[in-house]
């Protein structure tokens, strides 16, 4: 069949249009493919399918970029789930963002296990659930921010994140599971909110530099005491009874400090004032200095001098 053109201009226009159609088609085909092994669609590197609710579930990634941004939609479907093992062992990923994925609700078991290139992670508020081992063995992870959203930090979620130093745990969290932060050996000060009701005994095993910031009447405080972890109470006065001058030891200088306070040479307040009240009767007087002298001399006293007190 012959095609006749009115003029060369029309001929050129049709050829250009055909060329553009071919280029666009090739571009789309290069972005979208199908994995024959699992019959997943692959779009922009993400292997996914659409579930019965019409939502996109990410099952894998083809490593086309070290900077991974989880998309809001794939083929028009909201991304709601990152499946188990989706990015398992992907050491090529150096950054990860969930900021676009506003419909993402859950990160599956071991989804980012062994992503050793990641240095920081922020879990946004719309993610409602993390699963077992979700970020286990992310060995280079240093900073972790969990926004107010999830209720549980599950078992082994951040196990073996050896470089992890900073963690933000929100008020939405009520439970910290087995080995959740086990062997995070560089983990330092962690504030555990009063909302946390359950902490597995081994949740922080191997965290040798850990210091817990907590409320006075909280599970976190009792957990710290039970496991001999240093802690700081953030809503009360904490002091060692009898240690009045802040040098960390009880000695005759503490007796002198009480005497100087009574003589109006110095003034105690806050923790020091409470520490000086050795018989805890609410009044600082010469009896408190005498009690402290007896304690230093090795005599038995009927007050818990030398013990940590929180009021």
Summarize the structure.
By secondary structure, the protein is an alpha/beta fold. The chain has five helices and 21 strands.
Structure commentary:
The protein has 311 residues and is an alpha/beta fold. The protein has two domains: 33-233, Leucine-rich repeat, LRR (right-handed beta-alpha superhelix) (Alpha-Beta Horseshoe), CATH 3.80.10; 238-310, Dockerin domain (Type 1 dockerin domain), CATH 1.10.1330.10. It is 20% helix and 23% strand. The protein contains five helices and 21 strands. It has helices at 8-31, 219-226, 252-262, 270-276, 286-296; strands spanning 32-35, 40-43, 46-50, 56-61, 67-69, 73-74, 77-82, 95-97, 106-107, 120-123, 129-130, 143-146, 152-153, 166-168, 175-176, 189-191, 198-199, 211-214, 231-233, 238-240, 308-310. The longest helix has 24 residues, at 8-31. The N and C termini lie far apart (96 Å).
Overall tally of domains? 2
- CATH fold title of the largest domain: Leucine-rich repeat, LRR (right-handed beta-alpha superhelix)
Multimerization status: single chain
Question: Count of helices?
Answer: 5
CATH architecture of the largest domain: Alpha-Beta Horseshoe
Shape annotation: elongated
- Radius of gyration equals 31 Å
User: Low-confidence parts lasting 5 or more residues at pLDDT below 50?
Assistant: 1-6, 8-37
Query: N-to-C SSE series?
Result: HEEEEEEEEEEEEEEEEEEHEEHHHE
In percent, how much strand structure appears in the residues?
15-25%
């Amino acid at each position: 069949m012959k095609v006749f053109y009115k003029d060369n201009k029309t001929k050129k226009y049709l050829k250009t249009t055909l060329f553009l159609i071919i280029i666009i088609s090739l571009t789309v085909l290069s972005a979208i493919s199908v994995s024959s092994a699992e019959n997943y669609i692959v779009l922009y590197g993400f292997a996914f399918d659409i579930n019965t609710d019409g939502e996109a579930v990410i099952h894998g990634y083809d490593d086309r970029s070290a900077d991974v941004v989880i998309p809001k939609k794939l083929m028009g479907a909201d991304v709601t789930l990152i499946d188990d093992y989706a990015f398992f062992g992907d050491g090529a990923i150096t950054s990860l963002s969930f900021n676009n994925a506003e419909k993402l609700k859950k990160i599956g078991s071991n989804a980012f296990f062994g992503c050793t290139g990641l240095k920081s992670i922020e879990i946004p508020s719309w993610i409602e659930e993390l699963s077992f081992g979700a970020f286990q063995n992310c060995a280079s992870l240093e900073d972790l921010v969990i926004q107010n959203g999830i209720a549980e930090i599950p078992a082994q979620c951040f196990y073996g994140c050896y470089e992890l130093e900073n963690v933000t745990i929100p008020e939405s969290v009520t439970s910290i599971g087995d080995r959740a932060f086990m062997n995070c050996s560089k983990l330092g000060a962690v504030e555990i909110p009063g909302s946390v009701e359950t902490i597995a005994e081994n949740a922080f095993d191997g965290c040798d530099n850990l210091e817990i910031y907590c409320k006075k009447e909280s599970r976190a405080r009792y957990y710290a005491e039970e496991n001999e972890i240093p802690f700081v109470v953030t809503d009360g006065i904490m002091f060692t009874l009898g240690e009045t001058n802040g040098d960390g030891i009880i000695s005759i200088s503490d007796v002198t400090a009480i005497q100087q306070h009574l003589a109006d040479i110095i003034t105690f307040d806050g923790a020091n004032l409470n520490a000086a009240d050795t018989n805890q009767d609410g009044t600082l007087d010469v009896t408190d200095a005498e009690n402290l002298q007896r304690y230093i001399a090795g005599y038995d006293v009927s007050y818990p001098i030398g013990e940590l007190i929180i009021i």
